[in-house]
Design brief:
The chain is mainly α and about 130 residues long. It has one domain (about 5-130). The protein is about 80% helix and about 0% strand. The protein is built from five helices and no strands. Helix 1 runs antiparallel to helix 2 (about 30-65), helix 2 crosses helix 3 (about 75-95) and helix 2 runs antiparallel to helix 4 (about 100-120). The mean pLDDT is about 95.
């Protein structure tokens, strides 16, 4: 692992180059692709900066709906298990799990939080309005 520059600093530098140098000196297709690339890098920065918090909050919300489960230690295993737990939740919803008003309220709160966290990464302006 390198100390400096950090992954965040590297992504910021490349995004800044695309935004401040390439986009200001180009038009058309190259300008468009520089804008898209800069946006992707900024999205990656936000995801890396918030991922532990967001995944932890999603896990806790699923614990409240599906029952307590210890989170896997590795990031890859956590992502895979979150996908499985969300599939389980979707199946339960299809089978009437959220027909009860109390469960539905907890489910909607969880979904609002999870969607908001995803917007913080993909579209922070929209997340701020939510």
């Amino acid at each position: 692992m390198q100390d400096r520059p950090t992954v965040d600093e590297l992504l910021e530098a490349v995004a800044g180059f695309l935004r401040d140098d390439v986009m200001t000196n180009t038009t058309g297709r190259i300008n468009f692709h520089a804008r898209v690339s800069s946006n992707v890098l900024e999205m990656m920065r936000r995801e890396l900066n918030h991922r532990e918090e967001h995944l932890g909050r999603e896990w806790a919300g699923l614990d409240g709906l599906l029952g307590l489960e210890s989170a896997p230690a590795s990031f890859d295993a956590l992502q895979a298990r979150l996908l499985e737990r969300n599939r389980d939740l979707a199946g339960r919803i299809k089978d009437g799990f959220a027909d009860d008003a109390d469960v539905r309220g907890r489910l909607l709160a969880h979904l609002r939080t999870t969607v908001h966290d995803k917007l913080v990464v993909s579209n922070p302006a929209l997340a701020a309005d939510a």
